[in-house]
Amino acid sequence: MPIYLSIISFRNWLFDKNIFKADKVNSKVISIGNITVGGSGKTPTVIKVSNILKSSGKRTGVLSRGYGRSTAGYKLVNNGTDTILPVKECGDEMFLVVNECNIPGAVAERRAEGAHKFLEDVPLDVIVLDDAFQHRWIHRDLDIVMFDQRFLLKNSLLHHRLLPLGIMREPFSSVERADIIIINRKFSEKKDLSEKLLERFRNKKNYYGYYDAIGIYDVKTHHFYSLEEFKGQKSLVVCGIARPYSFLNVLESNSIDIKNKLIFSDHKDYSLKEINDIRKKFYDTNSFSVLTTQKDSVKLTNYSKELDDIDVYYLKIDLKLEDEENFKKDLLEIFDK
């Protein structure tokens, strides 16, 4: 850990002293990221921010690394009219965002280079960067940092340590670079944070976010069902996300039977092996349906033929903010500068 901390601290010092310079592109840039590994709710936040900007008349695009994709380098995913790349070539999160928001999108490991190319392909007023807090080579006009409330409430010293001993990419002191903090309580009740943490967040614009379970959609027909319609039904729960606790918890709290489940690693790249595992488990447990996350559903649609005889549904969630009007003002403020 001391070696990792030294590397992170030295790198940040080089940027802070302007020895390493961030590249400014010809549009506004909003970064959404975190200082922990996965599970803080970046994707729902990217969707929320993108929809606010789009509804405010801003030509909005999203740029991501495209984690888990089979391609490399810069790729245009959506040109504002059509989605050009399949999910395997752009990553599940990017595919979900551009289709959910109906906005242009691109993927690139080198975010500054990717942003320049993105702007050549599509005229934009603002680029939303997904998972880019540590990617300091591109100038941003607003930095939003996400925290999972459950992570902040944990007293375990191990959880609040840097990689590889803990799950932190950077120390809490890095929050100084942030403009806005969103504490995502997901489906949990709002809890008081320790004074030590509050002190770190005190000079930032702080918002609490939470998830609203919209309902359940048929993956094939997109037909909507209320959660009540699934009460008491025995489904096979399938997911490959960073921290499935909240997903499983909301299903269970709505009296959906989750005893039968297959939990895969985050960004699971489903193959025929996993599809056959799902089929076997489904029939072995005499389940009513397969119930998954929206992020997983975009990959499972690639196996519509193999899952043709099984009803597959996904839970749709929406990120809500306790003070959404002020949050919107903070986002749009950057266009006045």
Describe the structure concisely for a colleague.
With 337 residues, this protein is an alpha/beta fold. It is built from 11 helices and 13 strands. Helix content is 31%, strand content 22%.
Structural class: alpha/beta
Query: Helical percent range?
Result: 25-40%
| Fourth-tier CATH superfamily name of the largest domain | P-loop containing nucleotide triphosphate hydrolases
Mean pLDDT: 94
The helix-strand sequence is: HEHEEHHEHEEHEHEEEHEHEHEH
- Termini separation comes to 40 Å
β-sheet strand percentage: 15-25%
Low-pLDDT stretches:
none
CATH class of the largest domain: Alpha Beta
State the shape.
globular
In the CATH hierarchy, the third-tier topology of the largest domain is known as Rossmann fold
Secondary structure: number of strands: 13
Largest sheet: 13 strands, mixed
User: Radius of gyration in whole Å, from Cα?
Assistant: 20 Å
The number of helices is: 11
- Give me the CATH architecture of the largest domain, please: 3-Layer(aba) Sandwich
Word description of this protein:
The chain is α/β, with parallel strands linked by helices. The protein has 2 domains: 2-210 and 320-336, P-loop containing nucleotide triphosphate hydrolases (Rossmann fold), CATH 3.40.50.300; 213-317, Response regulator (Rossmann fold, 3-Layer(aba) Sandwich). It is built from 11 helices and 13 strands. The protein has helices at residues 2-16, 42-55, 87-90, 92-101, 111-121, 149-153, 195-201, 245-253, 272-284, 294-300, 324-332; strands at 28-34, 60-64, 75-78, 105-107, 126-130, 142-148, 180-184, 205-218, 224-225, 235-239, 261-263, 289-293, 312-321. Strands 1, 2, 3, 4, 5, 6, 7, 8, 9, 10, 11, 12 and 13 form a 13-stranded mixed beta sheet that branches. The longest helix is centred in the first third of the chain and has 15 residues, at 2-16.
